[in-house]
């Protein structure tokens, strides 16, 4: 599928590159006119100098493009691209990740907000822990007005855990770390954002087998909830829709979660870990996957 891009180039000073590693912030967006200006302002106010913001507009039909183009004209760190047609969110997520030039990478939603020190503090803790894969800031759910909601967003630091322990920390945890600061090298070595229901769990499982998820409690991130409460069936129907393209075959549409266990098994099987660890993980995964599915169904619709 071909798409045309409208691109703005930028330059980063050699001095800045020498002093600090570059981070690419990828924003795959679609019809975000309500909050995109606020989100971009939040990223532009980061106290970390060596960053680039790559916006990939998935053929928005509202004022998103106009707002982003104006921001790109005002800030040379911003690159704005517009797809000629909607390629689906997963492909758009992959696109910005594939174009990442920095040592570090972060996906950013067009309706979220970040503390000014999120990038600097996240990179700081990753530099201090060279084996870590992702830095996870303190996260909060907010509603459309910006009010923080009373919902559990806690995520443990996996340092000190065994490889098996940290794998199951991800398996049972929420998916917030997928929007943390990631080592680009590890991300590019993974399958990335797949067109698959549960793709975030698969990606995080790959990354946690490469390194720790470290918590940065001195920075925060507001994740805006812009969707109404959904039942599990409604969510699966949305994931299977033409807009999301996470279930494209007849079998996927009938059983949206069917591929997930096989993808997780493949992640473990192909991981660069010892045979004993692979065996333990695979033996444990088989009975636990239906349990996680049942728990996920019960939790759907609860906010």
What does this structure look like?
By secondary structure, this protein is of the alpha/beta class. The chain folds into 2 domains: 14-224, Spore Coat Polysaccharide Biosynthesis Protein SpsA, Chain A; 232-299, no CATH class. It is built from 12 helices and 8 strands. Strands 3-2-1-4-7-6-8-5 form an 8-stranded mixed β-sheet, with helices on both faces. α6 packs parallel to α12, α8 runs parallel beside α11 and α11 packs antiparallel against α12 (275-299). The protein starts with 13 loop residues before the first helix and ends with a helix.
Outline the secondary-structure elements.
Blueprint: H1 14-19, E1 23-29, H2 36-44, E2 51-57, H3 64-74, E3 78-82, H4 89-98, E4 104-107, E5 113-114, H5 118-128, E6 134-142, H6 163-172, E7 181-183, H7 184-188, H8 199-208, E8 213-224, H9 232-239, H10 250-254, H11 259-270, H12 275-299
Parallel strand pairs: 1-2, 1-4, 2-3, 6-8
Antiparallel strand pairs: 4-7, 5-8, 6-7
Helix pairs in contact: 6-8, 6-12, 8-11, 11-12
